[in-house]
Amino acid sequence: MITAALTGYFTALSLILAIGAQNAFVLRQGMLGRHVFVLCLLCAVSDAALITLGVLGFGWLVTLSPQFPHFMALAGAGFLIVYGGLRFKAAIRGNAVGQTTANATGLRPVILTGLALTWLNPHVYLDTLGLIGAVSAGFAEGGQKLVFGVAAAAASFTFFFALGYGARLLSPIMQSARAWRIFDGLIGLTMWTIAAGLLWPLRAGISGGA
């Protein structure tokens, strides 16, 4: 159970750490102090719903197609390698939180922007339905899988609320290009490490069947 909980929590946390439009928006709203609680709750609940679908639905997909986990592992690893490479590129060039989203200050624009950046982002489906679902397949149905899913969802709540409310503390630091270079470099390393973890079992399977 402990292994399932730790794996679920840190798998979800590692994936969600990647800075994208959604996280940049939460970070920006946190710096502004505008509707932070609502936005963080919206993002966390949305992630939790998608994680639940991934954990519950992955077994059904595997039943229909036993090769589906291998396909998702390859697709997921490919995406992580490319995305990690982009993070390394950003680390070399330098990055900062800019005007990547609308200047949303009212509650309704914040909610609509948060929903769009979450549910219209194709990467979120690969992360939650694909990658997290694939990792969850390694745990037994019932208790272990339930613990894995709850821990993964808890990681979303932890991250978004920490990001939203910690943004003002990070604001002076994260305006530095050097800080973003370091952060993006760590994200790239994390993404490539996860990709290696997905590809290694496939390599072992191919070697064993040879």
Q: Profile the largest sheet.
A: none
Number of DSSP E strands: 0
Domains (count): 1
Overall 3D shape? globular
How would you state the average pLDDT, rounded?
A: 78
Number of helices: 8
Secondary-structure class: mainly alpha
- Oligomeric form: single chain
Tell me roughly what share of residues is in helical segments. over 70%
How much of the residues is beta strand, in percent?
under 5%
- Tell me the distance between the termini: 34 Å
Q: Which regions contain 5 or more consecutive residues with pLDDT less than 50?
A: 98-104
Radius of gyration: 18 Å
Give the ordered list of helices and strands.
HHHHHHHH
Keywords:
210 residues; 83% helix; mainly alpha
General description of the model:
The protein is mostly helical and 210 residues long. It has one domain (2-201). It has helices at 2-16, 21-32, 36-64, 68-93, 107-119, 122-136, 143-174, 177-209. Helix 1 runs parallel beside helix 7 (143-174) and helix 2 (21-32) crosses helix 7. Residues 98-104 have low confidence and may be disordered.
Itemize the secondary structure elements and their pairings.
Layout (H helix, E strand, L loop, with lengths): L1 H15 L4 H12 L3 H29 L3 H26 L13 H13 L2 H15 L6 H32 L2 H33 L1
Helix pairs in contact: 1-6, 1-7, 2-3, 2-7, 3-5, 3-6, 3-7, 4-6, 4-8
How would you summarize this macromolecular structure in one to three sentences?
Helices cover 83% and strands 0% of the residues. The chain has 210 residues and is an all-alpha fold.
